[in-house]
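Below is just one:
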Amino acid sequence: MLKLNSSAITYPSSTPYITVASGNRNVKVNVAGTSTTVINATLPLGVNKNYSVFAIEPVASISALVVEDNLTAPAAGKAHVRFIHLSPDAPAVDVALDGGAVVFGDYTFKEASAFTPLDAGTYDLEVRVAGTTNVALDLDPITLTAGKIYTVYAKGFLAGSGPQALGAEIIVNK
Protein backbone atom coordinates (compact mmCIF):
# COMPACT_ATOMS: atom_id res chain seq x y z
CA MET A 1 0.00 0.00 0.00
CA LEU A 2 1.06 3.58 -0.57
CA LYS A 3 -0.02 6.77 1.14
CA LEU A 4 -0.95 10.01 -0.53
CA ASN A 5 -2.31 12.83 1.56
CA SER A 6 -2.78 10.31 4.41
CA SER A 7 -4.87 7.95 2.27
CA ALA A 8 -3.80 4.37 1.68
CA ILE A 9 -3.48 3.29 -1.95
CA THR A 10 -3.51 -0.41 -2.69
CA TYR A 11 -1.58 -1.70 -5.73
CA PRO A 12 -2.53 -1.28 -8.58
CA SER A 13 -4.89 1.58 -7.71
CA SER A 14 -4.38 5.17 -8.82
CA THR A 15 -5.30 8.59 -7.51
CA PRO A 16 -6.85 11.60 -9.20
CA TYR A 17 -4.56 14.41 -10.31
CA ILE A 18 -3.36 16.72 -7.55
CA THR A 19 -2.03 20.24 -8.04
CA VAL A 20 1.58 20.86 -7.02
CA ALA A 21 3.95 23.75 -7.69
CA SER A 22 6.42 23.39 -10.56
CA GLY A 23 10.12 22.81 -9.93
CA ASN A 24 11.99 19.96 -8.30
CA ARG A 25 9.54 18.13 -6.03
CA ASN A 26 10.48 15.43 -3.56
CA VAL A 27 8.19 12.40 -3.63
CA LYS A 28 8.34 9.74 -0.95
CA VAL A 29 6.46 6.47 -0.96
CA ASN A 30 6.23 4.61 2.31
CA VAL A 31 4.91 1.16 3.06
CA ALA A 32 1.47 1.84 4.58
CA GLY A 33 1.43 1.81 8.35
CA THR A 34 5.22 2.12 8.60
CA SER A 35 7.95 4.70 8.31
CA THR A 36 9.77 2.53 5.75
CA THR A 37 10.42 4.65 2.66
CA VAL A 38 10.67 2.62 -0.55
CA ILE A 39 10.82 5.56 -2.99
CA ASN A 40 12.52 8.86 -2.22
CA ALA A 41 12.87 10.75 -5.51
CA THR A 42 13.24 14.35 -6.63
CA LEU A 43 11.08 14.86 -9.69
CA PRO A 44 11.46 17.87 -12.02
CA LEU A 45 7.95 19.16 -12.77
CA GLY A 46 7.37 21.82 -15.43
CA VAL A 47 5.04 24.81 -15.34
CA ASN A 48 1.47 24.13 -16.56
CA LYS A 49 2.20 20.45 -17.25
CA ASN A 50 0.43 17.27 -16.21
CA TYR A 51 2.20 14.09 -15.15
CA SER A 52 1.54 10.54 -14.09
CA VAL A 53 3.99 8.95 -11.66
CA PHE A 54 4.17 5.17 -11.54
CA ALA A 55 5.90 3.00 -8.92
CA ILE A 56 7.83 0.45 -11.00
CA GLU A 57 10.24 -2.48 -10.59
CA PRO A 58 10.19 -5.22 -7.95
CA VAL A 59 9.84 -3.88 -4.39
CA ALA A 60 13.54 -4.50 -3.65
CA SER A 61 14.49 -2.01 -6.40
CA ILE A 62 11.30 0.06 -6.64
CA SER A 63 11.56 3.45 -8.32
CA ALA A 64 9.41 6.19 -9.81
CA LEU A 65 8.67 6.58 -13.51
CA VAL A 66 7.38 10.03 -14.51
CA VAL A 67 5.40 10.34 -17.73
CA GLU A 68 4.13 13.67 -19.06
CA ASP A 69 0.41 13.67 -19.85
CA ASN A 70 -1.04 15.50 -22.84
CA LEU A 71 -4.58 16.27 -21.74
CA THR A 72 -5.61 18.06 -24.94
CA ALA A 73 -9.29 17.36 -25.56
CA PRO A 74 -9.97 14.70 -28.21
CA ALA A 75 -11.80 15.63 -31.41
CA ALA A 76 -15.54 14.97 -31.60
CA GLY A 77 -16.35 11.24 -31.46
CA LYS A 78 -12.80 10.35 -30.40
CA ALA A 79 -11.02 9.27 -27.24
CA HIS A 80 -7.27 9.55 -26.62
CA VAL A 81 -5.46 6.39 -25.50
CA ARG A 82 -1.85 5.64 -24.69
CA PHE A 83 -0.04 2.45 -23.69
CA ILE A 84 2.75 2.14 -21.11
CA HIS A 85 4.79 -1.05 -20.65
CA LEU A 86 5.30 -1.48 -16.89
CA SER A 87 6.03 -5.21 -16.62
CA PRO A 88 9.76 -5.45 -15.80
CA ASP A 89 10.31 -9.05 -16.93
CA ALA A 90 8.02 -9.11 -19.96
CA PRO A 91 9.50 -8.86 -23.47
CA ALA A 92 8.74 -6.09 -25.94
CA VAL A 93 5.05 -6.15 -26.82
CA ASP A 94 2.49 -5.00 -29.33
CA VAL A 95 -1.06 -4.08 -28.34
CA ALA A 96 -3.43 -5.12 -31.11
CA LEU A 97 -7.08 -5.58 -31.93
CA ASP A 98 -8.06 -9.17 -31.10
CA GLY A 99 -6.76 -11.13 -34.11
CA GLY A 100 -6.21 -7.88 -36.01
CA ALA A 101 -4.10 -4.80 -36.55
CA VAL A 102 -1.48 -3.50 -34.13
CA VAL A 103 -2.56 -0.31 -32.33
CA PHE A 104 0.64 0.24 -30.28
CA GLY A 105 3.72 -1.52 -31.62
CA ASP A 106 7.00 -2.71 -30.11
CA TYR A 107 7.05 -1.25 -26.59
CA THR A 108 9.64 -2.30 -24.03
CA PHE A 109 9.65 -1.88 -20.26
CA LYS A 110 9.23 1.80 -19.24
CA GLU A 111 8.21 2.91 -22.76
CA ALA A 112 5.05 4.96 -23.21
CA SER A 113 3.23 5.75 -26.43
CA ALA A 114 1.85 9.15 -27.28
CA PHE A 115 -1.86 9.63 -26.67
CA THR A 116 -3.51 8.30 -29.82
CA PRO A 117 -6.98 9.28 -31.07
CA LEU A 118 -9.33 6.31 -31.45
CA ASP A 119 -13.02 6.27 -32.33
CA ALA A 120 -15.25 5.97 -29.28
CA GLY A 121 -16.52 2.41 -28.89
CA THR A 122 -15.67 -0.95 -27.39
CA TYR A 123 -12.36 -2.58 -28.28
CA ASP A 124 -11.27 -6.16 -27.74
CA LEU A 125 -7.49 -5.95 -27.40
CA GLU A 126 -4.67 -8.40 -26.92
CA VAL A 127 -1.02 -8.02 -25.94
CA ARG A 128 1.37 -9.89 -28.24
CA VAL A 129 5.07 -10.57 -28.15
CA ALA A 130 6.36 -7.76 -30.39
CA GLY A 131 6.44 -8.56 -34.07
CA THR A 132 4.55 -11.85 -33.70
CA THR A 133 1.00 -13.12 -33.46
CA ASN A 134 1.80 -14.88 -30.14
CA VAL A 135 -0.76 -13.59 -27.63
CA ALA A 136 0.81 -13.01 -24.20
CA LEU A 137 -2.29 -11.52 -22.62
CA ASP A 138 -5.90 -11.34 -23.78
CA LEU A 139 -7.48 -8.18 -22.37
CA ASP A 140 -11.07 -7.70 -21.30
CA PRO A 141 -13.02 -5.48 -23.72
CA ILE A 142 -12.36 -1.78 -23.15
CA THR A 143 -15.09 0.79 -23.77
CA LEU A 144 -13.77 4.20 -24.79
CA THR A 145 -16.06 7.19 -24.30
CA ALA A 146 -15.85 10.16 -26.68
CA GLY A 147 -14.01 13.09 -25.11
CA LYS A 148 -12.16 10.97 -22.52
CA ILE A 149 -8.41 10.35 -22.17
CA TYR A 150 -7.11 6.92 -21.11
CA THR A 151 -3.88 5.21 -20.13
CA VAL A 152 -3.69 1.44 -20.58
CA TYR A 153 -0.68 -0.14 -18.93
CA ALA A 154 0.87 -3.58 -18.64
CA LYS A 155 1.65 -4.55 -15.04
CA GLY A 156 2.91 -7.46 -12.99
CA PHE A 157 5.35 -10.27 -13.68
CA LEU A 158 5.35 -13.16 -16.13
CA ALA A 159 5.44 -15.70 -13.27
CA GLY A 160 3.56 -13.48 -10.80
CA SER A 161 0.40 -14.52 -9.01
CA GLY A 162 -2.49 -12.64 -7.41
CA PRO A 163 -2.03 -8.86 -7.74
CA GLN A 164 1.53 -9.48 -9.04
CA ALA A 165 0.33 -11.54 -12.03
CA LEU A 166 0.88 -10.25 -15.54
CA GLY A 167 -2.09 -8.11 -16.44
CA ALA A 168 -3.27 -4.73 -17.61
CA GLU A 169 -5.08 -1.80 -16.05
CA ILE A 170 -6.80 1.24 -17.46
CA ILE A 171 -6.79 4.72 -15.98
CA VAL A 172 -9.20 7.43 -17.03
CA ASN A 173 -6.90 10.46 -17.07
CA LYS A 174 -9.62 12.96 -17.85
Remarks:
- The two ends are 24 Å apart (CA to CA).
- The longest strand covers residues 37-45.
